[in-house]
Write a structure and sequence with these properties.
alpha/beta; binds nicotinamide-adenine-dinucleotide; single chain; 23 strands; 473 residues; 23% strand
Amino acid sequence: MPSSTPSAFPMTIDGRSVTSPGVLAVDNPATGGVIAHVPRCTREQLDDAVLSAERAFRAWSRDVSTRREVLMAMAVMLKENVEELAGLITAEQGKPLAAARIEVLGSARWLRYYSRLELEREIIQDDERAFVELVRRPIGPTAAIAVWNFPLTSAVWKIGPGLLAGTTMVVKPSPFTPVATLRLAQLWNDVIPAGVLNTVSGDDELGAWLTQHPLIRKIAFTGSTATGKKVALAAAADLKRVTLELGGNDAGIVLDDVEPGRIAERLFWGAFTNTGQICTAIKRLYVPRARLAETVDALVALAEKMVVGDGAEDDTDLGPLTNQMQRAVVTDLVSHALANGGRAVTGGAPADGPGYFYPPTIVTGVEDGSRLVDEEQFGPALPVIPYDRVEDAVGRANASPYGLGASVWSDDTDRARAVLNQLETGMAWVNAHVAVAPHQPFGGIKYSGIGVENGPWGVESFTDLQMVHEARS
Ligand code: NAD
């Protein structure tokens, strides 16, 4: 896609390609240049999308074998178009092409998983008095609102379970990264019945309209905690169901028995994959005081080996931040830390030149109470914080209003589990961080969200429970 001639990508509504009177420009975070124009969906077009999802719902919700076939065909389409879609993700989001390919193929893997997932029948009584079964009924037309750090993943984690459950959908990608999703919707249009999956683009206001639409019965949302609260308020008006995947401030806690050099690489990628733009990245690392220098040295050595650059270049390890807004957040939090006693052992300031680059940054000399430790940086800046007693590290990890993920690092699994069991999060890892799979529930507690995605739990979140009682006496 030449940067000098921005391409145009239509929306898909009721099985048709649709443009709008207005457009949004999408830029390449590695250059700042505009790469595409996408439709700015009007309110009338959004109505069309929701009405078409409503019309398609009845037939779609009745035929699970068609749903499985369609999901498999969608997975095949992703795989067949991996190069084009990965190129679009890199161009709009910034990640290295290899990581973009993993995102596309991972999305295919998720859809294959859902196409085959058998949901257990839930019979809770079967005797001479009654046969009682719990039936999961698809909720109805659903809004899927995605975010910019993983444009396809954050959409497909909703689309897969939602379609298997029997809901129809209106998908809204982030205004920063709508391109790959719109293109994928165009490709999928050959294999999905009209109206089942509608994809619209626009800015944040479009998200608000969607959450307020009276025919939408469920909202599956990924984004910030601040927006998640607005979504919950909008949902309350019609008692819509919600799944909210929100922000995080994951702690990694290294125990004193483990050699820092041995785990440094996993810790590094736990914090810096996708240039740190992962809701469940390690965002603060607690290390025994005696191991601090050794751990910091090992992480700095890795950070200084990284090639930071345009994701389209073969040798790039870390791409830019996806937008100027996020680079400003990281710059602000690191500057605040440095002005208040912190030290950037490596990195510490945004790169010059075009693009939203920020080098991998390791900060010491900060404690809980510093904004860089307490707030979500969602970018490549990791505070490494010493602790004296593991109970203190646990207390500080739990003091956050967020509760997404956490990890404990040790050669002694029993010891690690004993620490892990005290952590108040939706996900907890031993000797890993950001390990996800289609069969593992993914979600947070406290300000990190409501409900989970993935596995049978993800599918159930697109259903209402109906109790069916057959009297026998
Ligand atoms: P954001 O909340 O601003 O935007 C997310 C989506 O919501 C976008 O599509 C946006 O257009 C839409 N939106 C904005 N205002 C809306 C409204 N009033 N009603 C409905 N939709 C609206 O997200 P952001 O701050 O740009 O993204 C980063 C945040 O997302 C971080 O906090 C990160 O931790 C979080 N995140 C969470 C997960 C997870 O699974 N828990 C995954 C990725 C990112």
